[in-house]
Amino acid sequence: MLLPALPDRPDGGHSALSPLYEASSHRHPGPALAPVLSDTWTGRIVTTHSSHILRDLARCFGDDGTDRSALYPHGAEEEIEAVERLCDYRINEAAQHAGQADTDAAARHTALSSLLRVLGSLEWRLAAQDFVLGDELTAADVRLWVALVQLDTVHRLHLDAAAVHRIADHPHLWTYARRLAAHPAFGRHLDLDGIARRHHAHCQGLEAAGAAVQILDWAVHIAEGSARQGPTGFREPQYALHLRPPNSA
């Protein structure tokens, strides 16, 4: 189920997902949030964690006999989980803290320094290889690319210009992000308008000078990729996915 970019309920939830939450937790007290992976047989939620959804889908549909990359290659599970944690805490959370105007300057400096150290480590790694874990695209690249998109389209808006220039000064990292944006399985389905609308609908922070310093022109790289590779891929908005039991119609 493809959901609208903005939730339709005051609590930030989606009305279309309410039956799933109610079936899974009687009188569910919180919002019906996406993403969701559900079981159509029971009508209940399997998981709401994006990393778990990716793993489940890769296990169910990844071994299809094609030449597509395996998102979760055998033996790489721990490394992928480490990249997921790095994206959540050392990139997204650090960038958010670095742009919080209501915190003291020392705390913002510490968060920015932590973010820059991680970006520097990734820069060094991507200078010698095409993808985060080596020569093959994996789920680690999916998570990192999403984190870089958020860094440039959301967190950048609350950072000062000097901080954004320091973030942008990682040429191998942003070349990697640009290369994936031109890939039809990434960029063509990036909903930039939806990201902007969700951000402006929920963010209460103040814009800073970094809002005027765009790192990548995502729309241009997406268009370049579509022109070269054709119209196939996935889309970035919120999803609810439903699993059917084996042998069901």
Structure report:
It is built from 9 helices and 3 strands; from the N terminus they run H-E-E-H-H-H-H-H-H-H-H-E. Strands 2-1-3 form a 3-stranded mixed sheet. Helix 3 packs antiparallel against helix 4 (105-126), helix 3 (77-98) packs parallel to helix 5 (139-153) and helix 4 (105-126) crosses helix 7 (171-181). It is globular, with a radius of gyration of 19 Å. A hairpin with a 4-residue loop joins strand 1 (36-39) and strand 2 (44-47). By secondary structure, the chain is mainly alpha-helical. Helices cover 48% and strands 5% of the residues. Residues 229-249 have low confidence and may be disordered. It has a domain at 77-229: Glutathione S-transferase Yfyf (Class Pi), Chain A, domain 2 (Up-down Bundle).
Task: Summarize it.
With 249 residues, this protein is mainly alpha-helical.
CATH topology of the domain at 77-229: Glutathione S-transferase Yfyf (Class Pi), Chain A, domain 2
Supply the helix-strand structural class.
mainly alpha
Helix content: 40-55%
> Radius of gyration, rounded?
19 Å
CATH class of the domain at 77-229: Mainly Alpha
What's the β-strand tally?
3
Query: Could you report the average pLDDT, rounded to the nearest whole number?
Result: 83
* CA distance, first residue to last residue: 17 Å
- List the total number of helices: 9
Relative strand content: under 5%
Q: What can be said about the biggest beta sheet? A: 3 strands, mixed
What is the approximate shape?
A: globular
Give the topology string: H per helix, E per strand.
HEEHHHHHHHHE
What is the CATH-assigned architecture of the domain at 77-229?
A: Up-down Bundle
| Spans of at least 5 consecutive residues with low confidence | 229-249
- Biggest sheet, spatial arrangement of strands: 2-1-3
